[in-house]
Amino acid sequence: MNRVLAAVLISGGGSNMDALLGAAADPDYPADIRLVISNRPEAGGLAKARSRGIEAVAIDHRPFGANREAFEAALQELLAARGIGFIALAGFMRILTPGFVGLWRGRMINIHPSLLPRFKGLDTHARALAAGAKEHGCTVHWVTPELDGGAIIAQARVPVMPDDDARTLAARVLAEENSLYPMALAGAVRSLAAAAP
Length: 197
Hints:
Layout: E1 4-10, H1 15-24, E2 31-38, H2 44-51, E3 55-58, H3 68-81, E4 86-89, H4 98-103, E5 108-112, H5 124-130, E6 135-142, E7 152-159, H6 166-195
Helix pairs in contact: 1-6
């Protein structure tokens, strides 16, 4: 089986990244994750990736200031140099420009901590509680220029408990994210391969 060379983009501790790397350690998994990139040099996920023998690189967005295109050019240069064919965003806290998204159309997915289309953007757990939601969860979707607006690949649901706060709800959703994302990435890569001429 020809495995697709993949990269994971992170900004923080890398819980979902770690779940993806664990799955990709199986040679039968369709994505071969060779690279982890963070826009924050202090991101804890970089050390986790290196401990698994994965190349982990920081491209700090801050020196680029408001020039998102220049940051993304540096990102694209590294991705191209490593022959990456697929990107999984895993807690990558940068809004990507339409130009970069267009380069990776149909080859980039994201995991979001809500049942999209509800609660796009930030603070999803607190917003779900404030809205009186009876269930909450996470969504894996294709990345498009619209924030959290791409076609849904997979979702996992959790009930909202009467005594939940944002922290307890987030912890239960994260457990589902860690299970859902490896399955969804595998499915997305396989669908891409099936559609190839």
